[in-house]
Amino acid sequence: MNKLYVKHSVGAKLRRFSPWIYANEIDSSKEEFGSGEVVAVFSKKDGFLGTAYVNPKCAIFGRMLCFGKEEIGKKFFHNRIKRAILKRQSLLQKTNAVRLIHSEADFLPGLIVDCYGDSLCVQINTAGMENFRELILNTLKHLLNPSWIVEKSDENSRAIEGLESNNGTLFGEANRSFVLEENGLNFLVDIEDAQKTGFYLDQRRNRAICASYIKTEDRVLDLCCNAGGFGIYALKSGAKECVFVDVSQSAIEQAKANLQSNNLVSESLHVGDVFTFLKEQKYKNRFDFVVIDPPSFAKTKEQSIGAKRGFKHLLMESARAVKDGGLVALFSCSFHVGKKELLEIAMEVSHDLKIQFVLEEEMMQDSDHPCLINASASFYLNGLLLRVEK
C-alpha cells in the first residue's frame, strides 16, 4: 500500500478523527497517487494515522476510511454496511423508507444508500467508492436481498471527482409507484424521477414537529413545498387551509397526488417562483403558519452571501404574511447557511420590520442522516421555528 505523508499540523486534526485531508495539507507529491487509490496515512513525526482513499484531482485530497489498521476489502465493507443497517432498525418500525448509509457519518465517505421498502437508491459520489462499486453492490444484495437497485449519484460531485454519470437501474425491475408510509400518512414516490434520492427523508422529524403546533382552523402557507410534505401534515393535523407553492410543475402534481392519497383537499396549489409569488400576492396577516423550505441556495461558501439575501427576503415576506402570534418555520439545507446564519438573518428581519421573533424549536435532520461531530459539514440541515410577535 502506498504511503501518504501529511504535514505535522494535520496529524493533530486526524487524531481528533477529522475525516478529510485537503490538498494543501499533504507532504507528498500528488503525482505519486492514482484516482481513488487506498493509502496508508502518515506524518513524519506522529507515524501511522490511518487509512484513506485519495484523489489528486480534488481539493479534498483524501477521505479517511479508518483511523486504525484495517484491510479495506470485503470484510470491511460488510461490517460497515451491516452496522449502518442495524442502527436504523428502530426507525424502520415506524416508516418503510429510511437512509441506510449516510457517507462520512456512517464511516463510508462518498456512499449514500436509501431504502424504499425492498428497493434501494444509491449514490456513489467519489472515485474511492467507485473503485469498490461491485463489492458495495454485492454486499447490499447479500445483506438486504433488494428487488431493485437504482443509482442516482450526484452528477456534480462525480464530475469534480473526474467520473462520468452512471445513473439508472443497476439491478432488478424499476418500482415506479412506491407508497411511502410515514407517521400515519402516505406519500407516492417515483424513486427514479423524483428529486435527490426519491424523497426528503431528512425532514421526517421536522414535519412531525411542525404539525404538532397546528391548531384546528389554522391557515398554512407551504413555500417550496416539493411533494407537499409539510402542508399535508398540517392538513392532517386539522388545518383549515394550506396554500402550496413550488417552481416545479412535477412537484405540484406530486403534491396533488399525495393530497388525494391521504383523502385531503386543497384548492390552492401554485406553480411558480416563490419570490415572485410572494411579491404578487402581497399577503398580510393571513396565515397562522408559514413553512420556508427552499432547495440549497449555497452549494459553495462563495454563494452564501447571495443565499442569505434570499433567505432574508423570504423571511421578511413570510413574517408579513403571518398573523400576530403565528409561526414561521425557516429551513436551510446548506452547511454554508447554518443555524448561526439563520439566527443572524432573523435578527436583521426583526430589526427591519420592528417585530420580535421567539424561538420555539431548533430543528435538524432526522436520525437516519446522522451528524458526525468531527465533520461540521454533516450538520447540513438546520431549521428555526419562530413565533412572530408584532
Structure characterization notes:
This protein has helices spanning 8-15, 74-87, 127-130, 133-144, 155-160, 204-211, 229-236, 249-261, 274-281, 304-321, 339-353; strands at residues 3-6, 20-22, 38-43, 47-54, 60-66, 97-102, 111-116, 119-124, 148-151, 168-172, 178-182, 185-189, 219-223, 241-246, 269-271, 287-292, 322-332, 356-364, 382-389. The chain is an alpha/beta fold. It has 3 domains: 3-66, PUA domain (Archaeosine Trna-guanine Transglycosylase, Chain: A, domain 4), CATH 2.30.130; 74-172, RNA methyltransferase domain (HRMD) like (Transcription Regulator spoIIAA, 2-Layer Sandwich), CATH 3.30.750.80; 200-389, 3-Layer(aba) Sandwich (Rossmann fold), CATH 3.40.50. The strands form 4 sheets. It has a 7-stranded mixed sheet with strand order 15-14-13-16-17-19-18, sandwiched between helices. A 5-stranded mixed sheet has the order 1-3-4-5-2, covered by helices on one side. The chain starts with a strand and ends with a strand. The model has no long low-confidence stretch (mean pLDDT 94).
